[in-house]
Design goal:
Number of domains: 2
CATH architecture of the largest domain: Alpha-Beta Barrel
Strand order of the largest sheet: 1-2-3-4-5
Helix content: 25-40%
Structural class: alpha/beta
Radius of gyration: 22 Å
Oligomer: single chain
CATH superfamily of the largest domain: Glycosidases
Length: 220
């Protein structure tokens, strides 16, 4: 309620995404599906006490994928959001959401997708737009990758940071972890290089990815 009270009259705020990807897909956790919508109602009631202006964004269970947990919309200003990765690109993979939209006459939005080849991105966006579904693909920036709008080179000796992070934790591995750890001076140099490489001047636009989004890259 405190957040809603702060932003209740702020026009730059679209709305409140109440929970991101609630309830994982693990079978032992799906018993919580039945309490997801009641929790949304509880949160909505608190928000509406101070803010009747902004949209409430509701994500399905199992990483925002399962709309079967929803009944009749309980608020007049809601958007239902789903996430979709690594599926087919035709309308069959969003049929559940299209049917929900048509049944209850509410907007739906693909709040998160991407992490795929340019061809998949382009095909899925066409399916979404053919069915009048808004979308958001991410991330904007990745290290040494083409599945993002921009990319940047790996910092020098970055593999040492990755290797240390991948080592098993625990006191039994303490000596190995200490031996593999860069010195403070080395770690500072690696992270300083990271800060240089993530600057826009050091990045490259992935023209194929941008084109797959239906956009045109703008360069200086």
């Amino acid at each position: 309620m405190r957040i809603a009270n702060h932003y209740r009259n702020e026009p730059i705020i679209l709305g409140y995404d109440l929970l991101n990807e609630p309830i994982p897909h693990f079978p032992e956790l799906q018993r919580y599906n039945a309490v997801l919508e009641p929790l949304y109602k509880f949160l909505a009631e608190s928000i509406r006490r101070v803010d009747g202006n902004h949209i409430l964004i509701l994500g399905g269970a199992q990483w925002d994928s399962n709309f079967k947990v929803f009944g009749t919309p309980f608020d007049k200003n809601v958007v239902y959001t789903f996430h979709k990765y690594w599926t087919a690109t035709d309308a069959s993979v969003i049929r559940e959401y299209l049917d929900f939209r048509d049944k209850y006459h509410v907007p739906i939005w693909l709040g998160e997708s991407g992490e795929n080849k340019d061809e998949w991105i382009a095909e899925f966006i066409k399916t979404l737009e053919d069915n009048h579904v808004g979308w958001c693909f991410w991330p904007y920036k990745k290290m040494d990758a083409t599945s993002s709008v921009v990319t940047f080179d790996r910092p020098e000796h970055w593999d040492r940071i990755v290797a240390l992070g991948a080592m098993a934790p625990g006191t039994g591995n303490a000596e190995k972890r200490i031996a593999a750890r860069p010195s403070p001076e080395e770690a500072e140099a690696i992270l300083d290089d990271l800060l240089k490489k993530v600057q826009y001047a050091s990045e490259r636009v992935n023209d194929g990815y941008v084109s797959a989004l239906g956009l045109t890259a703008v360069t200086d």
